[in-house]
Design goal:
The protein is mainly α. The chain is built from 28 helices and no strands.
């Protein structure tokens, strides 16, 4: 039985991306209002416009759109954006992201933006390897460092690449070099914090921020301090300073989006929902993709959190788009955004657990789930939920030797929800291996230890295996389970039932009496009321 992420503790931990010039990281926006265009910027702008006019091709169009992005003049280069979009199949990663960003800022209808953001990356089909990209980044960074050894961003990129490749010692050495070369770069400080969180060293990340002289005066670093303190179940030390920065009026809306979101999360967790709503309203004025994901998370738990259509169009908001489509039961669309989320954070088990769950439980895309899980487990081998999802995808693909080998690595869990999930997964492997009674016994153990909100899900997955063996009477039993899922508002169980009905509901014997094994599972329905 596949599992979703535990979505109950999302915090505004910094994103960590390569320092690609096409789409500037959110942290690099101008913080303070009133910045003016320099003469050198204007001459550079005119040069790029002339180059595009005289020689219209991908290179000159990309340079012009990149310049327009930096100078906030995208509305003046729609022709170049359209030119690149029409040739998106020919673009490499940098120009591809540039077009995604430009489209998201130029189009008013959010329903147009998100599919483009996905299609640009998914058009070639298949799994986009984060490890392959990481090796290319390391090669490019080494070439840059051969001529400019003090390039801190190249060292930062190498650290992220080594993290994706599961080489933590190299990753730490590279990010330490980046910090040494650019100790006051908020981008690099936040990247160092994110690497430490990935390495399960959130306490070290928090100490790094508290010791940094810039933190108390920087809205992006204070936002990170608040998030890290919440991960550690500690009281944030700089919330007061953060509120003072918000009230000072010295920063643009884009400069305080994550600080307002972090403070809003803090107020929500403290029960001050009215203050939380006001802060998220401020956060959504010019949000980062991370802030949109946080607002979506809070909004799913309390009313009054409004995310405008402009905010939904924030570039690279793959996580938020994924969950929005999930809640709308748009399963294929949700998976596409989850794939983009994994591509954006190829070291993140949070993204991979979501993607492998959607691929396996809601779309039956087992090949993607297997490849994704195997890749991300290289970067984060300790995530047992991701390994569990890998086992399920392998079992459904009848790769049973591999499934058993991976299942042997699943831990004995004290958490009842995880224990229930892993027992059901082992039950699946046993039943697919022909050891039916052993599998049924494991499913029954999973049902017995499941919390009320998971009992129906265990029944649905167990029933799916029994119907695979003997589908007689599937119409009636699937109808009953489907009604139970709708009553309990369990969209996951509803989707599994829907796919099972497509396979078994139209058979000639669908209305026949149930087999004894199916009837045994059917009787458990009376004990699944959440």
């Amino acid at each position: 039985m596949t599992s979703l992420n535990n979505d109950s503790r999302r915090r505004l931990v910094p994103r960590w991306r390569y320092a690609a010039p096409a789409v500037a990281p959110a942290e690099t926006v101008a913080d303070r209002p009133g910045s003016r265009l320099k003469d050198s910027d204007e001459s550079f702008w005119e040069e790029k416009r002339r180059n595009w006019a005289d020689d219209p091709r991908i290179a000159t169009a990309a340079e012009l759109v990149s310049c327009a992005t930096a100078l906030n003049r995208l509305a003046e280069v729609e022709d170049a954006v359209s030119y690149l979009h029409a040739r998106s199949a020919e673009l490499r990663r940098g120009p591809e992201e540039l077009v995604t960003y430009a489209l998201a800022n130029l189009r008013r209808d959010s329903s147009e933006v998100a599919p483009d953001a996905t299609a640009l990356a998914m058009r070639r089909g298949g799994y986009v390897s984060g490890r392959k990209e990481a090796r290319a980044v390391i090669a490019r960074s080494r070439a840059r460092l051969a001529t400019t050894p003090r390039d801190a961003l190249a060292w930062m990129d190498m650290s992220r690449a080594y993290t994706t490749l599961g080489q933590p010692q190299h990753a730490e050495a590279a990010i330490s070099r980046a910090l040494m070369l650019a100790p006051n770069s908020r981008l690099i400080v936040r990247a160092a914090c994110r690497r430490l969180v990935h390495a399960d060293r959130s306490d070290d990340a928090h100490r790094l921020l508290m010791r940094h002289p810039r933190t108390r005066h920087d809205p992006w670093l204070i936002a990170a301090e608040i998030a890290l303190a919440q991960i550690l179940d500690e009281t944030p030390r700089l919330a007061r300073e953060g509120r003072a920065l918000l009230e000072s009026g010295r920063f643009t809306p884009a400069g305080i989006t994550e600080l307002a979101g972090a403070l809003g999360t803090l107020e929500y967790l403290n029960g001050a929902t009215k203050r939380a709503r006001r802060l998220f309203h401020l956060s959504m004025q010019a949000p980062s993709d991370n802030a949109v994901a946080q607002a979506r998370w809070i909004g799913a738990r309390t009313g009054g959190i409004e995310i405008s259509e402009d905010a939904w169009r924030t570039p690279r908001a793959y996580e938020a788009w994924c969950w929005r489509a999930f809640q709308a039961r748009e399963w294929e669309r949700s998976l596409l955004f989850a794939k983009q989320w994994v591509r954006d954070e190829p070291f993140s088990s949070r993204a991979a657990v979501q993607a492998t769950f959607l691929a396996t439980a809601a779309n039956e895309d087992y090949a993607y789930a297997i490849e994704c899980a195997r890749e991300v487990l290289v970067a984060d081998s300790t995530d047992s939920l991701l390994r569990n999802n890998l086992v399920v995808a392998l079992a459904y693909s009848d790769r049973l030797d591999e499934a058993r080998a991976e299942a042997a690595l699943l831990p004995i869990e004290r958490d009842p929800d995880r224990a229930c999930t892993y027992l059901a997964t082992r039950g699946l492997v046993e039943m697919r291996s022909g050891r039916l009674e052993a599998g049924r016994d494991l499913y029954r153990q999973a049902f017995d230890c499941a919390s009320p909100n998971l009992k129906l899900r265990v029944v649905v997955h167990w029933l799916k295996e029994e119907l695979r063996l003997d589908p007689r009477g599937s119409e009636g039993v699937l109808g009953r389970v489907g009604r139970a899922a709708r009553t309990q508002r369990d969209t996951i169980s509803s989707r599994v039932v829907e796919m099972a009905a497509d396979k078994y509901g139209s058979r000639e014997d669908a209305a026949a009496p149930l087999s004894e094994s199916v009837a045994r599972v059917d009787r458990l329905l009376t004990h699944t009321d959440a």
